UniProtKB/TrEMBL annotation:
Keywords: Lyase. The lineage of its organism: Bacteria, Bacillati, Actinomycetota, Actinomycetes, Micrococcales. Signal peptide: none annotated. Residues 4-330 form the Amidohydrolase-related domain. Pfam families: Amidohydro_2. This is Amidohydrolase.
Length: 335
């Protein structure tokens, strides 16, 4: 079976330039927030890192050549999360979502046998989520959409998201949960803590909102793939179970939180073979999928070898490398 990487990114410089032209003050404010959250040292290092990877982030031929080197047959391509623009107003965010869905579709159309696209929705404007989910999946033929861990005042437990979850389950499409930025802000502004601590924290918070709010009870057909192995939550899920048992305000879901890990999918961007084995233990061998975070420096340089280094049974390794991801796409509704 073809090796599938579900976590790979596309950068859209021209789109960002147009967003900046349309909303220069908001873009400047967002850049200031990033400086406060990351610190100048990390931003400078990240700028150099991204600059060196522009061909892989933008050019389909460079992408395919890198995939060949990694032994990856197929990639799911989603935009770099800096393109979420969670501050954008209703009109601008709709234009952004439509453009990203169009550009993702155009990029993967250059190699449809090797690339699968994921679009976006304007998470900060819940009343428009179904519209742009349909645009991505039915209008553009994408496999689903990428969302952040929160946007403005919208958490994933927000009741206003119920139509979105229902429509995603109805379409059988993928929801790829990938945070951008951490609300701990300046506490993480050195040592690259904004990424090493911030991203797994945001994953854990977002998943906890989903689980404790009963979203997975009401919409059992959801296909949610979580970046970075789900962050801290799968590795500290016992504390959530304890809260569910002893705290009345934590009993909004029908079952112990740990049971819901088997209803999600987790990628392998965890940087530790022991962590891969733990994900298999708590979620199941059918719920772990190969991810690389291509082509960023915090990703996996050799994602296939990394999965094999976990020492799992051959059958489970093969499912992680290929079968589990392909299975997620088999029941998606087509236009």
């Amino acid at each position: 079976m073809p090796v599938v990487d579900v976590h790979a990114h596309l950068l859209l410089p021209a789109l960002h330039a147009e967003v900046e032209r349309r909303a220069p003050e908001e873009v400047a404010a967002a850049a200031d927030l990033e400086r406060r959250r990351n610190g100048v040292e990390s931003l400078q290092a990240s700028g150099a890192m991204v600059g060196a990877r522009i061909p892989k982030l933008t050019d389909v031929h460079a992408r395919l050549a890198a995939m060949d080197e990694q032994g990856v047959d197929r990639q799911w391509v989603s935009v770099s999360p800096n393109h979420f623009y969670p501050w954008a107003n209703e009109g601008l965010s709709g234009w952004i979502a439509g453009e990203i869905n169009r550009l993702i579709a155009e990029h993967v159309a250059h190699a449809p046998d090797r690339l699968v696209g994921l679009g976006v929705v304007p998470l900060q404007h819940p009343s428009h989520l179904v519209e742009y989910l349909d645009d991505a999946v039915l209008g553009r033929g994408l496999a689903g959409v990428e969302i952040s861990s929160f946007a403005g005042d919208v958490e994933l437990s927000d009741e206003r998201l119920e139509p979105f979850w229902a429509r995603a389950a109805e379409l059988g499409c993928v929801i790829f949960l990938h945070p951008f930025g951490c609300s701990l802000d300046e506490r993480l502004d050195r040592f690259y803590l904004s990424n090493t601590v911030g991203q797994p924290t945001e994953n854990a918070v977002a998943l906890s909102h989903l689980i404790f709010a009963g979203v997975l009870d009401r919409h059992p057909g959801l296909k949610i793939v979580v970046a970075h192995g789900g962050g801290y939550l799968p590795f500290a899920i016992g504390r959530s179970d304890r809260a569910w048992r002893v705290r009345p305000e934590a009993r909004r879901c029908a079952h112990e939180p740990s049971s819901y890990l088997k209803k999600l999918w987790f990628d392998t961007v965890v940087h530790d073979p022991i962590a891969v084995r733990h994900l298999v233990e708590v979620a199941g061998g059918s719920r772990v999928v190969l991810g690389s975070d291509f082509p960023f420096d915090m990703g996996l340089d050799d994602p296939v070898a990394f999965v094999r280094s976990a020492g799992l049974p051959v059958e489970i390794t093969d499912r992680i490398l290929a079968g589990n991801a392909d299975g997620l796409l088999r029941t998606k509704v087509s236009a």
